Amino acid sequence: MCDGGGAEVKGSIGNNSGEIQPWELLDSSLLMSQQPWLTVYREKVRLPNGRVLDDFYRVALPEFAVIVAVTSDKELVMVRSYKHGPKRICLSAPAGLVESGERPLETAQRELLEETGYTAPEWRSLGRFVVDGNRQCGTAHLFLARHAVQIASGNQGDETEDVQVVLMNPHHFLQAVRDSDVVLLSTVSAVALAMVVGLNEI
Before 36, cis peptide (omega within 30)? Predict the structure, then answer.
């Protein structure tokens, strides 16, 4: 939800009616498509005040799932691997792209098993979130997996990844964030939401 929910509205800018209006899409042209990884659109939009933007760029990336897996001993199941975006080895939650015809929960269960060798009997959705409010840049599906147990060796899915499984106390995760060992916002967001709903309830 992006409509403000129950938040009190203090005022508005550029709209005399006091109600926020969406932009009007006038035209859209495909600039680049490298499926399934990246699609870029150039859009022509009209703002509520009548101004027209001829070159607003939207970047469509695949949907993906992020998994906060927790064992019965209340340890997070994390992975350490090289990420070419930040160009460094870092700690992150298991995650992966939603494949065609796959439900996000199925993606989460598959990725957890492939990357870590863990599975879990209890799953809870933590929400579905757009990565970038202006450009879109993909949608993240966040999940909490409780009572995770290892049933196989990890790193079974992607031959381009060298993954090490790391079990850690949630307090140590917070220290890893402070130490910049965790650099992916999706991981921080997922673990933070899991903590809000209650990791200790498992």
Answer: yes
